[in-house]
Write a structure and sequence with these properties.
This protein has helices at residues 4-33, 39-71, 81-118, and strands at 122-123, 126-127. It is mainly α. It is rod-shaped and about 110 Å long.
């Protein structure tokens, strides 16, 4: 598979081919618009136009197929999409675990608070003496 620079170069070539197509079409029309047109010259320009247009169509189809693969998430050489997707999912899992840990902490705190309300002399899960200290 071609890298990003090669892909840009191919797009540049496609752009040049499109310019060539337009020039050939313009030359063919100019030739046909002349009072004494050369049918051979017009056919030559038309033939060049059609050949170049077929090349443009083929190259654009290749580019579209490549973009289709990239957008569907299929792994391909030179793409960071798969890595980004893995990282995004890892962050999502991390946030999910954090939310579960926070929920467990809330349940623990409410359980300890409920236990403190029902058991006098117990604070934060530790027994305290209710009398005077002997130090």
């Amino acid at each position: 598979m071609a890298g990003p620079i090669e892909r840009i170069q191919v797009l540049d070539e496609i752009e040049k081919d499109i310019i060539t197509c337009l020039q050939c079409a313009a030359q063919a029309l100019l030739e046909l618009g002349k009072e004494r047109s050369s049918q051979k010259q017009a056919e030559s320009n038309t033939s060049q136009f059609l050949r170049t247009l077929n090349q443009v169509e083929s190259k654009l189809s290749d580019q579209i197929n490549y973009l289709t693969q990239v957008s569907t998430g299929q792994p391909h050489e030179g793409s960071g999409y798969a890595s980004q997707k893995v990282l995004q999912m890892a962050w999502h899992r991390l946030e999910h675990v954090r939310s579960w840990v926070n929920e467990l902490e809330r349940h623990k705190a409410s359980h300890l608070a409920a236990g403190n309300r029902t058991t006098p002399g117990v604070l934060n899960g530790n027994m305290q003496s209710s009398g005077t200290s002997t130090q």
